[in-house]
Design a protein that fits this description.
The complex is a heterodimer of chains A (81) and B (149). With 81 residues, chain A is an alpha+beta fold. Chain A is 51% helix and 21% strand. Chain B starts with a strand and ends with a strand. Classes of the chains: A alpha+beta (81), B mainly beta (149).
């Protein structure tokens, strides 16, 4: 399998695992980080900030690439989309 | 072939890898919300910024209102979105065009609010790629399934 495909599968496996974790823990994450952007990696929140720019800055300080992580805006409010 | 979706606080979500050499972003991860009420799919402004997409050079398509915010819908060309399937394999979709959302107003408040709106896979993605959606929230099961055209 070409290298890009291998990298994609690894990335997606981790991301889907983190999404599943978020699905199971949304209430506790939302109660702690309501109305904040959070970055999730390996089943835990590694950074949170009320502003997206702030989150990106925090992740950069930690040496993390935001575009390779599950990043979501968390809220306890109902969401209509 | 099925692509499993996650149900998170009542919303269907799926991770996709984004690959488009022409935009020099490298490999990127996008968490899409599946919204069958949306006629168009788009990469949300937060993801646009995270990936460092060249916003000023993306062709403008049309104005839209999303979540009360005026957004410009721009066009990405020749991208590949890939998903993992239920057998651990990779399912790539080559797309000639895909939407990218950039706020019409550039003040801090408008940009911040725009980033709260997620990337969206709309009905157009399912139609174009001959996919069906199955969703059973009570069983916490949802997936895309390839169908015969």
């Amino acid at each position: 399998m070409e290298n890009v495909a291998v990298a994609e599968l690894t990335l997606l496996k981790r991301a889907n695992s983190d999404l599943a974790w978020l699905g199971s823990h949304y209430s506790e994450v939302a109660s702690k980080f309501d109305r904040q952007f959070v970055a999730i990696k390996d089943g835990r929140v590694i950074a949170a900030n009320p502003r997206h720019d702030g989150l990106l800055a925090e992740l950069a300080k930690k040496g993390e690439d935001a575009h390779l992580l599950v990043v979501q805006f968390i809220t306890t409010a109902a969401q209509i989309l | 072939m099925r692509i499993p979706l996650s149900i998170i606080k009542g919303r269907l979500q799926v991770a996709a890898s984004f690959y488009a050499p022409r935009y020099h972003t490298g490999l990127a991860l996008i968490d899409f919300v599946v919204d069958t009420g949306s006629t168009v799919s788009m990469i949300g402004y937060g993801d646009v910024e995270e990936m460092g997409l060249p916003q000023s050079s993306l062709p403008f398509r049309e104005h839209s209102f999303i979540g009360g915010t005026s957004m410009g819908l721009h066009t990405l060309r020749n991208i590949r979105l890939s998903f993992s399937d239920d057998e651990g394999g990779l399912q790539p979709f080559k797309l000639k065009e895909f939407g990218a959302s950039i706020p019409s107003r550039k003040n801090v408040e408008a940009r911040d609010h725009a980033k709260e709106i997620p990337s969206i896979l709309g009905l157009d993605f399912l139609t174009l790629n001959n996919m069906a959606l199955y969703c059973s929230p009570s069983r916490n099961v949802a997936y895309f399934e390839a169908i015969e055209p």
